[in-house]
Amino acid sequence: MKRTKLQDVTVDQLVQRFTAIALDQDKALRSGQHAKFNRLFDELEAVKQELQNRAGDQRRALIALLAHSNAQVRLKSAIATLALVPDVARTTLQTISDQNEYPQAAYARDMINALGDGRFIPS
Amino acid sequence: MADQFPTPGWYLQPGTWPYWIPNGLAAFPALRNDASTKNSPLPDSKGGILGTLAEPNPSLDQSKLGLGGILGALGASAESPASGIPYWLETAMPFSMALEAPRPSNDPRPQVASPPAWDSQALSNLPALPSADFDSNTPYWLRTALPSGVNSEMFGAPQAPAEEPPNPAPQLWPATARDVAVPPTLPALLSSRSTPTPNYRRQLNDTLANTWQPDRSAAPAGAEHIAFSDTWPVASSGSPANRQWMGGGIGAESDPRVISDVTPDNDWRPGTRYAQNREPPGRGFRPLIIRGRLVEPEPGQASRLFEAQTRAEKTIARVREIDPKWRPRPSAYESVEGLIRAYEADAEQAQARLRELTAPLLPTIPRERPPTASGRNDIARAAARWLARRWLAQEQRYVVEGVDWFSEYEPSVQAYLDSPKTLQELQQAVSAPKPGYDIHHIVEKDSARQDGFPPRMINAPENLLRIPRFKHWEITGWYMTKNDAYKGLSPRDYLRGKAWTDRIGVGLDALILHGVLKP
């Protein structure tokens, strides 16, 4: 399969890539594949970084994912857009927590706490 | 066609409701206070919590199953999943929906396909998306990777207008005797626009409209998308009530004459026989105002508009039974046909949301015992997580009929649903081992040992808690996985070399985050 550099793809494709990775993360998390999850974490970080590097900070394209049906996609897109739309992103995290969407609910609460105590500063 | 349906409202009569309601957990709560709904003494009954979460058993007469326990009617029924959907709901739902309600045995309506099981091929497509290798030329995953709430049009949609029109409220209100030159106040619209609400969907919609600028580099030359316009009226997102197209009056939900046979894929055409057959019951064809123009729907249009609105309202109401905050995304329109399409779009969004809320989340326990422990654990944990979802009302957690192999997981599933406890309660419970629970170290024992902490500290009574087994596993996974809140490190890596007190702090946090320990 042909591999494409992240720099060569469009923002739309990066968003789709972001979604696919997050869905894989969800599967890994639910089946206890922690090493795979961690590898996917790095991949997702690279996609997010590429979006951020695009002109105008194209992480804003991830805002659409805040309404995704999968909790992991919502979680990761919320974290990625905290610097752009803090209120909406934070509300997304809160909703995951309030709905008890485990295992993501724990990560969402963790991030909310980190925002509160300054451990995580959106940038 | 109407004569093929039962009389309206028959499904509301208790006498017509069988107890089992296969696959009806999300749709219809099991009856309370009815001993026959719990722990049915049938030969196949296994009792306990597992009930009809089970895969269908051809030898088991589903119609005789009782309900009880906590898992509800989660199982795949041997019967057609649509065998009991009320006709009005069935028409407002995709055939794959797993909603059930009784239907007379002599009902002549055709059977429909079974709903997707949680591990069905269709659902397994998503996790199968390739992530290690990225091929931009592969349309398959590009399509399947798109979230259901997002389509290619969204990605290509033009930028929303920078400024809202002077009157941002939808220019649509019921025609009355007022002078149309002076837009009357429509309470439903005004209240929806002026009342502050914490609804995050609305925030999201607003954010999408105001801040989102899609990348157009990939769009083909000349390609344009249906878009928001600074001149089009954009209905406020949310309830179709905001698009009142006729004078007030009763809603379709309360009108027993409303019978919808709209299918999810319907493709109305103006002037078709279908449209001619329908009239808004008891209503005249009042004009409506769109974009400041007085528009009088043709009879066929009015009928279709009425039905589209009815269908949207029904479906959205169904979604909100599960997800009260859900709202459809706004649609733009400038004609009666556009308004009809907007309602249809709302209904389809609602149907999609229903699928998301039910089908993927409804775990099915296979009758055959999975050969591996991990396979069995995954199924049990999926069931537990599903039951832990907050929107699942307590009264819906009924079931009894189980699967033999799953019975060993009953305690773990039940334990997963425990409410948070105090530290003292969790510590005291250590002396009373119980199925479904594990002994958990607040400070992880292996990493503490590796960092040189003595066993007497690691195994001290203060460091030991009895917690639900599946929670224990989730906390262990949380320790092992990279986390944005820990600067991309896993909590375990973050704690390397840290003091005991730091470890206790993280350990207690983990218990609170996972709903084991009271904050």
CATH architecture of chain A: Alpha Horseshoe
Low-confidence residue ranges of chain A: none
> What is the H/E order of chain B?
HHHHHHHEEHHHHHEHHEHHH
What's the helix count of chain B? 17
The pLDDT mean of chain A sits at 91
Strands of chain A, count: 0
Helical fraction of chain B equals 25-40%
Q: Output the strand order for the largest sheet of chain B.
A: 1-2
Which structural category do the helix and sheet elements of chain A fall into? mainly alpha
* CATH fold-level assignment of chain A: Serine Threonine Protein Phosphatase 5, Tetratricopeptide repeat
**What best-fitting shape of chain B do the alpha-carbon axes yield?**
elongated
Number of domains of chain B: 3
The counted number of beta strands of chain B is: 4
Topology, please?
The complex is a heterodimer of chains A (123) and B (519).
Chain A: H1 11-30, H2 34-53, H3 71-80, H4 86-98, H5 104-117
Chain B: H1 87-91, H2 121-124, H3 139-144, H4 152-156, H5 187-194, H6 200-211, H7 273-277, E1 288-290, E2 293-295, H8 299-322, H9 336-357, H10 373-388, H11 410-416, H12 423-428, E3 437-441, H13 445-450, H14 455-458, E4 464-468, H15 469-480, H16 491-495, H17 500-513
Antiparallel strand pairs in B: 1-2, 3-4
Helix pairs in contact in B: 8-9, 10-11
